[in-house]
Task: structure prediction
Amino acid sequence: MPPTGLLLYDADCGICTRAAGLLQRLRLAYQVHPLQSVDLPANGIDPARADREIPAVAPDRRVSYGVAAIAAALGSSASAPVRLAGAALGAPLIAPVARLGYRLVADNRHRFPGSSCAVPPPDAR
Result:
């Protein structure tokens, strides 16, 4: 069995939890777990940054955050279309737009209807 990575999400956030459920169905070579269930520093993850951006630990132990983390996880899928989506997220023309979109959603996740997000807005952290 090939080594697996670790993709974490905020279990206190409804949007994050729903996204994690989708990611778990994509046949990734990453395990998807709540960040609250993992010793972040032991995995090389900056807890303050993990509060703002989804972290991923690659099989080689490199840590990435936000869009780069999602792109890495998608790029590990057994599905060619999912791998292509991961490559697209990291493409030079798409990555800046994806990072902007990610930041807008992350900073406003507490405002989305039905999100039941317990995470305070960025200015309250």
